[in-house]
UniProtKB/TrEMBL annotation:
Name of a matching Pfam family: Nucleotid_trans
Alphabetical keyword list: Signal
Protein name: Nucleotide-diphospho-sugar transferase domain-containing protein
Domain Nucleotide-diphospho-sugar transferase residues, every copy: 109-310
The species this protein was found in: Salix udensis
Signal peptide extent: 1-34
Length: 354
């Protein structure tokens, strides 16, 4: 009778176990590579100190879109951003989503986007588009209509947004916050310090003064990355705590006042300010389409004007991609000069109600 010896049986068991471990590692590596956001954050996962938080609705929503090290992308919408007005070609939300479709290495990032709706119509539209949705309750306040820049309703909505973002930090999640009027033309992870734990905050600017450490940069809270830790929670607590003593000021103005008073230094908080060459806007265009990452419709007063000019941005981007592809196929110079279309709708918005 031919029977395996105990030594052979043990050897076979070890071999099978080794092969199973290899397959498991390959599967894990494959998943990481298919998700650029998750892969970029994976290195710091082992250093994260996870803390348990009650499983409220916000926690469940954040957990659903989070990367392994608890980082998410947050955007806020209302009815005016999701419904097409009579004078508009499309909606702000549709332009925002189209930029992820057209951008370079941006489509997988939608898996980590949590779209926060401040009214029921926006919430229903979010679900209709099969996105990751969260309903922000705001009792007794109608945030659904268009909030004209610097109107009292606009200011109130910005402060309600700030309170939500503070809550997200307290839940232990770091995030990239983006306004919906920001076009994502390239994946921003290569330019953000997400895996550099010495940086707590990176914020966009209306005009970049050349020094990424200078707190004199005119900030814009429409796009930034912030790491969840005790320093940033304290900063946002102090920021929101000034709401009732800042009549007539938007939350961005109050944040700049905190910086001017040295709050970042007192908190031991390390901040960087983003170069408009990469994170640009209508206040200051990027001079190089070869490196631009985002385009923000800042320095603009109304939604219709933003839609008009952001449509032009995406047309310029599609033209650039087509020209680059033609140059590459012809084995010619792939450097494609481009002049952005003028932001005429936004310029007119300051003089007219458009």
């Amino acid at each position: 009778m031919n029977m395996d010896s105990p030594r052979n049986a043990l050897g076979n068991t070890v071999l099978v176990s080794f092969l199973f471990a290899c397959v498991l590692c390959l599967c894990t590596w494959s998943v990481s590579l298919s998700d650029p956001l998750s892969f970029s954050f994976y290195r710091s996962q082992a250093n994260m100190k996870t803390s348990k938080f009650p499983a409220d609705e916000l926690e469940l929503a954040l957990e659903r879109v989070s990367t392994p090290n608890k980082t998410v992308i947050i955007a806020v919408v209302n009815q005016a951003y999701v419904e097409q007005s009579a004078g508009a070609e499309t909606t702000m939300l549709d332009l925002f989503l189209e930029s992820f479709w057209l951008g370079e290495d941006t489509r997988p990032l939608l898996d980590h986007l949590l779209l926060v709706s401040v009214d029921q119509i926006a919430y229903e539209m979010c679900f209709f588009k099969r996105l990751n949705c969260y309903k922000l309750e705001a009792e007794g306040v109608d945030f659904g209509k268009e909030q004209i820049f610097m109107s009292q309703d606009f200011i109130n909505m910005m402060w309600r947004r700030t309170l939500l973002l503070l809550d997200i930090l307290k839940h232990g999640y770091s995030f990239i916050f983006t306004d919906v009027d920001v076009m994502w033309l390239r994946n921003p992870l290569s330019r953000l310090s997400i895996h550099n734990e010495s940086v707590d905050l990176e914020m966009s600017t209306d005009h970049f003064n050349g020094d990424p450490r200078s707190e004199k940069n005119p900030i814009n809270t429409g796009f930034y990355y912030i790491r969840s830790n005790s320093k940033t929670v304290s900063l946002f607590d102090a920021w929101y705590g000034r709401k009732d003593n800042s009549t007539g000021k938007k939350e961005q103005d109050v944040f700049f006042e905190l910086m001017d008073e040295g709050m970042l230094g007192r908190q031991g908080l390390h901040a960087r300010f983003l170069d408009t060459a990469f994170f640009s806007g209508f206040c200051e265009d990027s001079r190089d389409i070869e490196v631009v990452i985002t385009v923000h419709a800042n320095c603009c007063r109304s939604i219709n004007a933003k839609i008009k000019d952001l449509n032009a941005v995406l047309r310029d981007w599609k033209k650039y991609k087509a020209t680059r592809a033609e140059a590459a196929s012809a084995r010619g110079d792939v450097t494609v000069p481009l002049r952005w279309t003028g932001h005429f709708g936004c310029l007119d918005s300051w003089n007219n109600n458009v």
